[in-house]
Amino acid sequence: MPACPASFLRFRTSRKDSRQAGMTKSSITYDLIIIVSLMAMLLVSPAYAVDGTALLKQIDRNLNPESYEMYRKLINIEPDGSKKEFTLFSVKKGADKVAALFLAPASEKGRSTLRLGDNMWLYIPNVGKPIRITSLQSVVGGVFNNADILQLDYAAEYNVEKTEETGNEYLLHLKAKTKTVAYDRIRLWADKNKKLPVKIECLTEANMLIKTLYFKDVKEFGGGIARPSVIETDSPLYKGYKSVMIYANIKKRDFKDEVFTLIFMPNIESLR
What we know:
This protein is α+β, with helices and mostly antiparallel strands and 272 residues long. It has helices at 6-9, 18-44, 52-63, 146-149, 154-157, and strands spanning 68-77, 83-93, 97-104, 112-116, 119-123, 131-133, 158-166, 169-176, 185-191, 197-203, 209-222, 225-234, 242-252. It has 2 domains: 6-44, no CATH class; 52-271, Clam (outer membrane lipoprotein receptor (LolB), chain A). A 13-stranded antiparallel beta sheet has the order 6-5-4-3-2-1-13-12-11-10-9-8-7. A hairpin with a 7-residue loop joins strand 12 and strand 13. The N and C termini lie far apart (62 Å).
């Protein structure tokens, strides 16, 4: 706490001049009020305001490179404990281009998905023309939907309404930029030091909880990439069900735009 300047505390009294004494006393009282008010403002005001938009973009980059290739496993767990596993090879370019190829199980091998902004397609070998799918559907079943599997940068889909600090975490309140985004609102908790997600709650416009994502086991993937290697999710809408995404490998890689086209969907295997 800074020391009060001596000029604020110095006063003189004079029995010979009561008017001067009264004026000095009033001046001291006024000055003390100002000092106390300024000190109170310093105590309650934060040292700095967090730029929520810049923070969200940093979280996006820490979570994934802007362009990458990735191998991961997706596991759906039924209430009885039975499991179904999928292995995917995924590629991404920029903020809004993502494609994924199913490697396993055998019944799904060769299928691919493509996302360009809000638009999504599924390609099935021997069917021919890719078919349109939506963000709330799931090509694998379980709790993860297509928007979760073909995740874009959060900053590309959401605006930051408010940023809070809670202990060792930031809490970002996000609102969808358009009506086509899978979740109207998101609450995102991020580690202050690592700037990585810890938990995400996906909500409706009325703040009803749809699902919760838990980010666990931060792992070094090389190339300066250190991110959670496991994402678990559950939902009050699917009680007893659980889905897990496990990241095996991720690295930076650039791609041509032609990779993210409907014509290229049957050829994603050639990128491996």
